[in-house]
Amino acid sequence: MNIIVCIKQVVDPEAPPAHFKVDTTTNRLILPTDIPPVIDPYSEYALEAALQLRDKYAGKITAISLGNNLQKEVIKKPLSMGADELVLVEDELFTSNDSWSIAKVLATTIIKIGAYDVILCGRQSADRDAGQIGSGIAEILKLPVITVARKIDIDGTKVLVERVTDDGYETIETTLPTVITVSNEIGEPRYPTIRGIMAAKKKEPTIWKSVDLDIESSQSGIDGCRSHLVKLLKPVYEGKCEFVDGEIPEDAASNLSKRLRQEKVL
Amino acid sequence: MTEYKGIMVLAESAEGKLASITREILGCGQKLANELGEELTAAVLGNHVATLAREVIIHGADKVYLADNPILEHYTNESYTNFMEVIVKQVMPKILILGQTAIGRDLAPSLAFRLETSATTDCIELSINIESGKLLQTKPIYGGNLIATFTSECHPQIATVRPKVYPPTKPDNSRQGKIVKIDTEPEIVSTRTKVIDKVFQSKEGIRLEDAAVVIGGGRGIGSAEGFKQLEELARLLGGAVGATRPPCDNNWIEETAQIGLTGKIIAPKFYMAVAISGSSQHISGCSGAKNIIAINKDAEANIFNVARFGIIGDWKKIIPVFTEKVRELLME
Can you identify the CATH homologous superfamily of domain B208-331? Predict the structure, then answer.
């Protein structure tokens, strides 16, 4: 079975909120210089799903990453976690944060790789939080898509996916090849093993540029954007918390109930 | 070429009735339709859903496009994308609004790519730019750390709207509107996907997203046993218990109790965040609460930035006493 996983490098979403600052003249995030980027945690769940599938049914995992300024020590993490191959698509011409142009480049990359049975993505990315890339790739490649998966089982050419819904989950049956986006319910991503880290050190990723991919310039990068970011702000919270205390914690609890009653909150 | 015109919303049902999110996006759609001076229509898809179409009119739509077909009995990405493609190509709305629900968040991107347009998911505000007439689509990005506004040159401009952002419209039984049946079937009717089972995991009682009182617990609660204590307080106040992601991942509480960007969006009158540090991811899901009361050991915890009242301290010492005091207050 050939599994392709889309992996994104993002600004560390665990960085303290104060590190997210906006350059209001360009409407862009000022990249924090003291906090290194990471593999998107949502992508890691997709990779974990891929590893679970390979554990159960054998096969080959190819991780693909599209981006600029990809940091080798960061972006090679899928290899150290157990992916077999890594393809990096890095070109200034592909610079974009728009779902349309990103999905177009990724789908073209997948076509060039050729063999695929399951294509996995995170349910969304930790930077754009759009949740559209998996669905976009599926539309472009004319494949079925199942989003926000919590469990994946394969039986021959049949795939059974548990998809998270608003009040539980539903089991969906489809056929291979298919695109699946993965949610955190799939299970904690495994840590890289020592063997994996050593193997990743030796392994060089395949690097493709725009000339390597058969894609029209009108479909990728800035020209391929279907939507435009026109304003970027940092949310402002009032920050007027009234702290209630007491001699001992139990007093504080008692005082809180009184204050809440006074203010008619309770 | 015909012009794109009007606002369309996709209706959803919940337990046979119009879903509250649909009443919310009808309210949002009405506002936009008034600003543009155009019509508000709705797409109703399903099997035997004619009564739902009437409900949509009563709740604010001027016209309903109804696709009533056995294939649409259960939502699947393929069947809904196929039928919505037919409807949108026939009606040509300028703006299409869906709820940010299990259906909306799944359908909007597929439909956008099918129609070669854009979609903006999880919007917390939609408005019209007076000069350009374009839809301003505002949503949290970077896990809620930043708020971005997007526009698009393509049509329809598709957006999904987060639950609990817009107040639901009130029913008006005197409202009249036309119901147009969609007879054209999509070119491809058969689908490669089918729903074979649905499992409801939510607890009996008050739904977390509808509760007026919510008690939320974080990683610091430490065990399923700890959540039982929160449940006791919630029960006393007639509320529900929620959590951040770690307690759900650790099975201290059911997965459906997760509050945050990738979980439930809540807007209760009273939200008590217990041992919750307040990641942007979580705050994104609870910032609509009227009163946030935070209990945390760490005085620097981010949750205190959004809280109205707070106690710095160990929840294990505070919650039992607080629960007793609340019990006494309620007896008065």
Answer: TPP-binding domain (3.40.50.1220)
List CB contacts (< 8 A) between B296 and chain A: none
Interface test with B, best of A24, A45, A133, A165 (most B CBs within 10 A): A165
Chain B residues touching A259 at Cβ < 8 A: 309
What pTM does this model have? 0.95
In chain A, the residue whose alpha carbon lies closest to the alpha carbon of B270 is A265
Residue spans of the domains in chain A: they are: 2-224, 236-266
Nearest Cβ partner for A129 among B202, B255, B261 = B261
Name the nearest CA neighbour of A256 among B298, B290, B311: B311
Segments of chain B assigned to CATH 3.40.50.1220 = 208-331
Cross-chain residue pair A250–B310, CB shorter than 8 Å: no
Q: Which residues contact A182 (CB under 8 A, 6 or more apart)?
A: A42, A45, A46, A48, A49, A120, A121, A122, A123, A148, A149
Task: Please state which CATH class domain A2-224 belongs to.
Answer: alpha beta
Distance CA A241, CA B293 (A): 9
Bridge-based pairing state of the strands B194-200 and A168-175: antiparallel
Q: Where in chain B is the domain with CATH 3.40.50.620?
A: 7-189
Minimal-distance CA residue of chain A relative to B313 = A249
Residues of A in contact with B283 (CB under 8 A): 237
CATH class of the domain comprising B7-189: alpha beta
Calpha distance A44→B183 (Å, rounded): 44
CA distances from B207 to A10, A120, B238, B240, B257 (A): 34, 32, 11, 7, 10
pLDDT, tens digit only, all 266 positions of chain A: 999 999 999 999 999 888 999 999 999 999 888 999 999 999 999 999 999 999 999 999 999 999 999 999 999 999 999 999 999 999 999 999 999 999 999 999 999 999 999 999 999 999 999 999 999 999 999 999 999 999 999 998 899 999 999 989 999 999 999 999 999 999 999 999 999 999 999 999 999 999 999 999 999 999 999 999 999 999 988 778 999 999 999 999 999 999 999 999 98
The C-alpha of A103 sits at a distance from chain B's nearest C-alpha, in angstroms, of 9
**CA dist., res. B123 & res. A186, Å (int):** 26
